[in-house]
């Protein structure tokens, strides 16, 4: 997703930048799931001229529409409303991907079945970077942008090189910290996600699933919202294992069953439980993040999206942050003062602007995980049984509402256009 939006932004803002996309899969595919888009991201879609087509996909009409987001306590027999936010656009992931790919219309610029293993950057600032693929072939480029997800091969090369350099300089402690940046970290959370056709639900449940709802509960949460104009319902249930380590023992993605989900969410409000169980074969997804990287760039290489800042899905912000990276990077590469000779310096501006912002969002998603799963804001001592039985001080729900609203404010109060202005300011002092 991040790579496609970077391509679209280059096409629009920096048409003289020639690019190739190397994709390990044999074709573009997406998991069966939904994705949310906040106003900051909607601005990028507007800038790219995609607004009308996107509104057609969601079935939402008119400017700025989007769904109301409700926060509800769901692990008791009756639902308890906590608070609500407004205006998020929700999409079927593969439909969004298809639309982006259609507009990119990259043709033979997308090279499929090309799994990057590593890259090597020469000491000179102008000689080409060499990309090494698993099939033994190579390619060259002036800049390499790692948009290769949470297990990024670009991040592996970048941080292994940083660590080797530190070791050479006798900084062994720093070297081991840098090497730790290569591997993703398990968050203790496993997500059960999938889509269910609205036609398979009772009339009552179709009505129930017609808005964007986040259900909180002890050590579990669930997110349910309609996509594709309400024809399909996105269903996500998340289970947190207290005291879990940072390494997941088992396949990261496997198919589960509705029975398993039913057992995990046993005792939840009947309608929520019924919707969670309505996905026949949900994908069971061990959720990993990247550590907070000390930089997203090295020389003429940069990381964007999950490769740089894979985060938990508890603000629905991962895709959006990848889009913001692509937008800002293209703004930089489109600038008349950026040349091959100062490209490394220009990428540092990308790092300066995007890293603090995206790492704040990454932290916010982790904080929201604790809120949704009642592991913070004075909920720590409430047991799973007491939470289900409604035996807790209900004033805690007000604290949760306040903290949640405070957390989500960034996505409504700030604009990506402000970040673009900041970049342009910094580009003025770039040495040419
Ligand atoms: C359960 C769950 C729910 C989520 N819900 C939301 C949500 O509601 N909203 C939201 O915004 N985000 C959500 N996210 C996060 C979101 O999916 C990611 O942030 C987003 O997909 C990141 O985009 P990306 O382009 O950086 O990486 P990816 O989407 O992971 O794309 C990486 C691409 O690189 C390719 N690739 C990988 N390795 C190589 C290699 N070595 N060589 C060549 N190609 C390679 C892959 O095949 C893939 O096409 C969710 C994540 C999870 C796990």
Automatic annotation (TrEMBL):
Keyword Oxidoreductase: yes
GO molecular function per UniProt: FAD binding; oxidoreductase activity
Domain of life, per lineage: Eukaryota
A UniProt-annotated Pfam family: FAD_binding_3
Domain (FAD-binding) ranges: 3-166, 290-363
Keywords per UniProt: FAD, Flavoprotein, Oxidoreductase
Name of the molecule in the record: FAD/NAD(P)-binding domain-containing protein
Lineage: Eukaryota, Fungi, Dikarya, Basidiomycota, Agaricomycotina
InterPro entries, sorted: FAD-bd, FAD/NAD-bd_sf, FAD_monoxygenase
Record's keyword annotation contains Protein transport: no
Gene Ontology biological-process entries: secondary metabolite biosynthetic process
